[in-house]
Amino acid sequence: MEWFDNFWAVYSNLVLTIGINALLALSIWLTLSCGLLAMANAAFMGIGAYTASLLTMNVGAPFPVALAGGVIAPTLVALAIGGPTLRLSGVYLAMATLGFGEVVRVLILNAESFTGGALGLNGIPQQTQWWHVVLALVVVLLLLWRLRRSRIGRAFEAIKEDGVAASLMGIGVMAHKMLAFALGAAIAGLAGALNAHLTFFIGPSEFGFDRGVDILTMAILGGTSGPTGPVLGALIVTLLPELLRGFKDFRTMLNGAILVLIVLFLPKGLWDPLRFRQWFARAPRKPAPATVGER
Amino acid sequence: MLKLTQVSKRFGGLSVLQDVSFDVPAGSVFGLIGPNGAGKTTVFNLITGLLAPSGGTIEFDGRSLVGVAPHQITRRGLGRTFQNIRIFKEMSLLENVVVGMHAHLTYGVPALLFSLPGFRAQERASHAKALELLSWVGLDHKASDVADNLSYGDQRKLELARALATEPRLLLLDEPVAGMNSGEKVELMALIQRIAQRGYTIFMIEHDMRFVMGLCQRIAVLNFGRIIAEGTPAEIQSNPAVIEAYLGREDDEAIAEGAR
Fold first, then answer.
1. CA B239 from chain center: how many Å?
2. Does residue A33 belong to any structural domain of this protein?
3. How far apart are CA A208 and CA B55, in angstroms?
4. Does A158 reach chain B within 8 Å, measured CB to CB?
5. Which of A164, A169, A173 to probe the B interface (max B CBs under 10 A)?
6. What's the CATH number where A90 sits?
7. How many separate domains does chain A show?
């Protein structure tokens, strides 16, 4: 097992980052699956990270308590801002949530006595073990899978396809949007709290616009038809820069090119069960029904 | 069952509906007809809570519907289809119908998280019910197809099945045969008749005269936002104001005499 020890010594951080990114991608997938393009997940991650770190460093809270704080704080914030913002749709919601993200970043930057301002928080105890990340990911995935197969998951999908029709099916549209938004914030906060206790340091610039776009990229690239896609997307977006290390200066360019190619040729993302079904149905046992052929 | 009293709707300075009053009796098939742009779909949007009336009252079983959220109105027993079909295109037919049962699935969060027996029993029952509703409209053999692949007529039938899944006591149909060929129309007419016989009260907006006259026991006619006539199909067909609204007047005086 010596090779594994060596591998883990070098790459443990990368592997755990994949897990944390997967959580982040799932957090935005949840709102996307409800038809909401909410871009506040980086901010929620930041709120979670700062809350958990401050609980650990200033109060000396035990790790589970810090994690709980990191989950609860962004959830409460999401519930507070969800009311006015979730009435918006499409790009307007994206703009509003991006604006909220900026507000959070600037607040962290200026609350210096509390958050360390631009210098960030240093010396956060490294309490995140590998199994914490694995456990968090497994629990979140199970939760999302169960939700998807229930009336709540169906309601999300119905709202995504047609909010008006969904409301006339007896679905409380606003309540479900709020649920998706708050749950997404909770997952992003959990990821932030875990990440803070893994990386030793957090600063306000980590939770800005770039991070928000990264999170969205992972989810879209992986495919948004189910929770599998975002995890796959997180894996690729996190690993790709490492795999391309050999290309030195061309690394970021190649990285970008690969992402563009994937989106260009697989617009629904890498994980698209419908496409897989079509591939395997290429040599079908029975001819397609006439109604399918007509359109 | 459904009672509109002096309902009006203005969009800014534009008065779309004025003093619209009528009563849809329980157990009947009621029709609302009128030329294009008369405000028929606005009436439906007011009833289902998508728009708020500027004045007047809307009552369903004696309880006001004004200011109640659309999903709450649906839960009180009002189902609806749309003129421009609004099915969930990326879902299967079965999923479309099961979504309609949303409010009737009562399992809690623990049950769905841990797949408890209550959850499984309700989900199984809802699937069986959805298949039955699909069989009512003759689409059960396509239950697992993606809804987008359906023909236009079949999409309308799916929307009907989905509306029935909300367990409505009153079913609002917004131009159910718009864009259908005559064969499909005859088929749908029989289908709606069967649904009415099952005890649903039906209130429909329709353009197709033969369809309306054949199905409805009572008809109201809307023109330029006002109800100009109400009665049995025979009364409506011979009402000069209705004929004028649809065909225009041939001779002012003759019509004036006829109307008096």
1. 25
2. yes
3. 49
4. yes
5. A169
6. 1.10.3470
7. 1
